[in-house]
Write a structure and sequence with these properties.
Elements: E1 10-21, E2 25-36, E3 40-44, H1 51-58, E4 67-76, E5 79-80, H2 86-91, E6 94-97, H3 109-115, H4 123-137, H5 139-143, H6 154-166, E7 172-176, H7 184-201, E8 204-209, H8 212-218, E9 221-226, E10 229-235, H9 236-241, H10 243-248, H11 260-264, H12 266-269
Parallel strand pairs: 3-8, 3-9, 6-7, 7-8
Antiparallel strand pairs: 1-2, 1-4, 4-5, 9-10
Helix pairs in contact: 3-6
The structure holds adenosine-5'-triphosphate and magnesium ion.
Adenosine-5'-triphosphate binds next to strand 2 and helix 1.
Protein name: Amino acid/amide ABC transporter ATP-binding protein 2 (HAAT family)
InterPro entries: AAA+_ATPase, ABC_transporter-like_ATP-bd, BCAA_Transport_ATP-bd_LivF, P-loop_NTPase
GO biological process, one term: L-amino acid transport
């Protein structure tokens, strides 16, 4: 049986990729994952696990970082995309929202959103309609639309970055660490919006998150990345109930909260690697 929100059609497929920075630093050591159309897929893991590197490998943004995919393949709708440029991928319907919510600080919120429509050729009317659609999801951005983006709050900048991605009418959004630096209530609000964009607009998401707890409540399926390797994957509901995930990523165990000392013995005791 399929999970809610997922179909069998696979949009994005990452097959056993290896990524090396500066010709020597091996960061991804054979990562595979697949993203079904219409789903929200989470890529989870702690600091430096390789989440951002994976997303950048997919959208061909590694070159500016002296990074390179040295093995494996990346397919979108069955077509090899790793030799394309980032803007070719946008034309195919895949857009990345970068970690740290990059906005054009000197532009207004509305002009930031409009820059997201630069590859479109379907005319002003369609773009204006989508601007309205973005404001429906993010009423706060409508209030702030004339403000210079650099002076808006972190949450508003994250909303602007996501709204800007929506303006390209994407099929798939790669969303890097949407919770970063935001208060819990705001994180929840952003994930609620992701959920409704997924359900109402049919946009597929691959989201990278350190915040396992919130990500597994909103995603359909999750992959856990550790030191450049996928160590576990499964439907989000199953991962949430998995004792290892509970203990190491959700900070709880059957007996209640674990102390830091217990968690430190984690490497030795990790059952899924043995
Ligand atoms: N440009 C680079 N050159 C060399 N090493 C890099 C570069 N970018 C990242 N790394 C290294 O690659 C590893 C993975 O980093 P990455 O940013 O992909 O992790 P992440 O899972 O996104 O972490 P975080 O949750 O902190 O954002 C880290 O060890 C990092 O130091
Ligand atoms: Mg990252």
């Amino acid at each position: 049986m399929l999970d809610a929100g997922r179909t069998q059609e696979t949009l994005l497929e990452v097959n056993n990729i290896e990524v090396i920075y500066n010709h020597v630093i091996l960061v991804l050591k054979g990562v595979s994952l697949s993203v079904p159309k219409g789903g929200v897929t989470a890529l989870l893991g702690g600091n430096g696990a390789g989440k951002t590197t994976t997303l950048k490998a997919i959208s061909n943004l590694l070159h500016s970082e002296r990074g390179e995919v040295t093995k494996g393949s990346i397919l979108y709708r069955g077509e090899r995309v790793q030799d394309l440029g980032p803007s070719d991928l946008v034309k195919k319907g895949v857009i990345q929202v970068m970690e740290g919510r990059h906005c054009f600080e000197h532009l207004t919120v509305e002009d930031n959103l409009l820059t997201g429509a630069y590859t479109r050729t379907d005319g002003k009317g369609a773009i204006a309609a989508d601007l309205d659609m973005v404001y429906t999801y993010f009423p706060r951005l409508k209030e702030r639309r004339k403000s210079q983006a650099g002076y808006t709050s972190g949450g508003e900048q994250q909303m602007t970055a996501i709204g800007r991605a929506l303006m390209s009418r994407p099929e798939t959004i790669l969303l890097d660490e949407p919770s970063m630096g935001l208060a819990p209530q705001l994180v929840e609000q952003i994930f609620e919006i992701v959920k409704s964009v997924n359900e109402n607009e049919g946009v597929t998401f691959l989201l990278a998150e350190q915040n396992t707890n919130v990500a597994l409540r909103y995603a359909h399926y999750g992959y856990i990345l550790e030191s450049g390797r996928i160590v576990m994957d499964g439907p989000a509901a199953a991962l949430r109930e998995n004792p290892d995930v509970k203990e190491f990523y959700l900070g709880m165990a059957d007996e209640g909260r674990k102390s830091f000392r217990d968690v430190r013995s984690y490497r030795r005791r990790k059952r899924w690697l043995s």
